[in-house]
Amino acid sequence: MTESSVSLWGQWEVVVGLEVHTQLLTKSKLFCRCENRFGAPPNTLVCPVCLGHPGTLPVLNGEAVRLGVRAGLAAGCRVSPVSTFERKHYFYPDLPKGYQISQYAQPLLTGGSLRIRTEAGERMIRIHRMHLEEDAGKNLHAGIPDRSHVDLNRAGVPLLEIVSEPDIRSPDEAVDYLKRLRQLLRATKVSDGNMEEGSFRCDINLSIRRPGTSVFGTRVEIKNVNSFRFVHKAMVYEIERQIEAVESGEKILQETRLFDPVSGRTKPMRSKEEALDYRYFPEPDLPHLVLSPSLIEEERLSLPELPEQRVERLCTEIGLSRSDAEILVAEESLARYFEEGLERFRSGIADEEGLRKVRERWTSFVLSEVLRELNRRGEEVLSGPTGVTHAVDLLEKVLGGSLSFSQAKEVYGRAAEEKKTPVSLVEELGLVQVSGEGELLALVEAVLAENTEEVAAYRGGKDRLFGFFVGAVMKKSRGKANPEKVNEILRNKLKG
Amino acid sequence: MKNPFFTSLSDFAKGRDDKRFSIEEITRYFLSRTESLNASLNVCLSTNPNAINRARQLDARLVRNGAQSPFTGYPVMIKDNFEMEGFPTTCASKILSGYVSRRTATSVGRLLSLGAIVLGKTNLDEFAMGSSTENSAFGPTKNPWNPARVPGGSSGGSAAAVAAGLAPLSLGSDTGGSIRQPAAFCGVLGIKPTYGRISRSGLVAFSSSLDQIGPFAVHASDALEALVAMGGRDPLDMTTDDRDPSEMRRDFQMTEIPGLRIGIPAEMFGEGLDSSIRDRLGELRDSLAGSGSREVAVTLPHSRFGINVYYLLATSEASSNLSRFDGVRYGFRVKEPADLRAMYEETRDRGFGDEVKRRILLGTFALSAGYQEAFYRKARKVQTLIRGDFLQAFEHCDMILTPTSPSPPFAFGEKTGDPLSMYLSDVYTITANLAGLPALSVPVGLDSQGLPVGAHLIGPPWSEGRLLKVADKISSLYPMPLPEVHAGHPAGFREGGLK
């Protein structure tokens, strides 16, 4: 951690640790064979085990263990050869057994870190631990007067809890940490990281202190903040609340608070005195989890390319700028689209210079047009008529000179709108690029004839007017002129 | 009273295969005996309405295919903390009223798959917490030897069932002595196997790290076959062991009494032991020595902490295991509670009996922040020492002999006012659970008042076969009758006739 990059909030340093609960992409629940799936009708994915019936025992799902190990290896954690399960007790209708099976004394994974990058610079955020536990169900209150219902489909779904060290120093850093963590979990197929469906949830531990001190301030926990935007808002509110309190001589209470997205404020939920005594003790129904070194090795060897490695490769091997690479890798599916397209071009083009040109065009196309449509319409844009092969076909037309780049961009947007392949749309609209010498020459001459004053000025040394001529020719061709050819012809004519 | 049809499992199988009787005939005999005696003994909480049908089906199958197993058609009763699909499981608690199980316990399922017939479910101390069945929400079970005495507990119903001849075999669960103490009180054989031998899936948990399932029987060989049938790895219980249960049969055959080293811990023959029981045990020691075994003095210095450790660990786990009985999803729930908290509090207050609530409170306290180190964790450390004592003792002997209970069956109400004296009735049995060891109680005759006395054998892990072989020898030295229980029993049984 580079201290120089620590951002300050007025005269205060903000100290934040995050706890993330992420649902694992297993087929079944953590301790029974019920399906692990979101969105089924209430209480249809349940059995005596996850309903907490008497006489039932938990049976650990090995797939969840593997996914946990994989996530840990991806973040550089130490995998515990022996880890333990404990029971955490509290009464709530969505918790069928009256306790949650979690890992407490010896978690599956310890240590590790995640590199973040914000305007304050690049920093390592250390990970304290990651452990397996079961999710609770959901209490339903909406639309039912005077009573509550309980949906236990989620009860027993495997969670990985990822606890950071208190290394985060600003809301921006917190959001970047969460985004990168989610990227990592998605790239390794550990979790879908879907925040709307609750498969990636975050609790914030936040305190403030004077910079340079090593003692922590009193910590406040903010529970279940379920979007990146809310994380940012909740933190800003809480930081300001704490600073204001301390500066006006109040003491910060150690408490748990809830973020209310409507008011944008955090509100007290329970104080330290009201804190629950979870009475953790070893889960007698589950033996210690002993991992064979071969399982760990297997997972290590089968780790896919991690987001950070991919950014590095896109920069060094393909020559993208760091920021372009980051944008691509932030959307796994977009990065895949990009690389697949590039591969297609590469098989058709041999020379370095040609490749460089293609890469520039393709990068610009993907980062502007495809990304925009992806944001607008979602993942479906990346397959079907606007899938990568069709986008490549479209760009081939630009490279071959029969279509201008601006035409191509326009066509892609319409293709996504109308769900047609871009090439068929090009034909339908009769789009062609004017590349014929004769036609272009005529256009150029017409433009020069209409703008004699500007021609004189240019020839008198006003070089900047060149762009004006290009624009005028393009306009006259209604965008159909091949800009490279236009440049060439204009340059020759204006010399004259 | 012995049944008029067969003496043992193998005799049953022979009689069945020789067509001396039909399975239906046997089933009807035991069910009608239960029907006539249950009003006075209160052994069964429910009987199986499908038993006769199943017997007929098995008879029909027998005609076509012959029997697959000695257990085909064998009548069994199970403690009412075992689950059987489609049947109520009460744990003798009000809090499970109306609850019907959706699965069958692995142990019961394995017997059923061999053709056994479950006749009914037996009474127990609520959630297996107690040593007399007096803690049952459905009233206590009477000791078939003397209806003024308790049958022991918590598996009192299952022990009494075999003693009263309502079934030749029954299943119990043992957390601190809940099979062995009632076996001693009712004059039958009861064995708790090594922790991990039999799946606990479908047994309603009291203290998960101590609970084990075991049979009651008259003959050691019947108990052996039941253990072999139920034992072995179960994918539904991760604490079961991979060992092949048929090793017990092999050990039973191979074990010989001459040369056997019997450990005698002086601590367990000292103060607090009823003199009549000490005398019976003394005779037994002489007889065993006469059969060629050798006594070895052993010491179990930490066993004196057994009761303390047990009542911290077992109650801690119980407080956790019983959290699920909250009125939310099944069983009893108070009507119209004021709010969520009231629903929890009133449901649990009215659903659980006093002893269960006492143990939940004890366990909650032992686990709570600030006390866990001094109580729960310290108890775990002492548990390790107790286990160590045993393992060390077994370097010098093959098994350890102690009394099963410090006193003969006591009278109803004698100990209910003093939980501590009730807890002390498990003083000799509790350490086997804490150490995870197999242990059994075998009858060694009657005391001066005509009440049964049990001898307790504790062995190293996985030594059930050897223990049962010695129990078999003891049974041959002390042939134990079953009590004469019938309608109009002089000691006050209610009128009722055999049909």
How would you characterize this protein structure?
The complex is a heterodimer of chains A (496) and B (499). With 496 residues, chain A is of the alpha+beta class. Chain A has three domains: 3-301, no CATH class; 307-429, no CATH class; 437-495, Arc Repressor Mutant, subunit A (Orthogonal Bundle), CATH 1.10.10.410. Helix content of chain A is 41%, strand content 19%. Chain A has 15 helices and 18 strands. Chain A has helices at residues 62-74, 171-187, 228-247, 293-301, 307-316, 322-330, 332-348, 352-377, 388-400, 405-418, 422-429, 437-450, 452-459, 466-476, 483-495; strands spanning 8-9, 12-23, 78-79, 82-83, 86-89, 99-102, 109-110, 113-118, 121-134, 138-140, 149-151, 158-164, 200-209, 220-225, 255-260, 265-271, 281-282, 289-290. In chain A, strands 1, 2, 3, 7, 8, 9, 12, 13, 14, 15 and 16 form an eleven-stranded mixed sheet that branches. In chain A, helix 1 (62-74) crosses helix 4 (293-301) and helix 14 (466-476) crosses helix 15 (483-495). The longest helix of chain A has 26 residues, at 352-377. The N and C termini of chain A lie far apart (62 Å). Chain B has 16 helices and eleven strands. Chain B is α/β, with parallel strands linked by helices and 499 residues long. In chain B, helix 7 (220-230) packs antiparallel against helix 8 (247-254), helix 10 (306-321) packs across helix 12 and helix 10 (306-321) crosses helix 13. Chain B is 38% helix and 12% strand. In chain B, strands 1-3-2-4-6-5-10-11-9-7-8 form an eleven-stranded mixed sheet, sandwiched between helices. Chain B has helices spanning 9-17, 23-41, 51-65, 106-113, 156-163, 180-186, 220-230, 247-254, 275-290, 306-321, 340-351, 354-367, 373-393, 419-423, 430-435, 464-477; strands spanning 44-47, 75-79, 117-122, 169-174, 189-192, 212-217, 261-265, 294-298, 399-403, 439-446, 452-458. The longest helix of chain B has 21 residues, at 373-393. Chain B has a single domain (9-303, 383-477), classed as Amidase signature (AS) domain (Amidase signature (AS) enzymes, Alpha-Beta Complex), CATH 3.90.1300.10. Chain A binds chain B through residues 48, 51-60, 87, 89, 91, 93, 96-99, 150, 277, 279, 281, 284-287, and chain B through 82-83, 89, 91, 96, 99, 101-103, 105, 200-205, 207-209, 235-239, 316-317, 319-320, 323-326, 328-330, 340, 344, 364, 367-369, 372, 376.
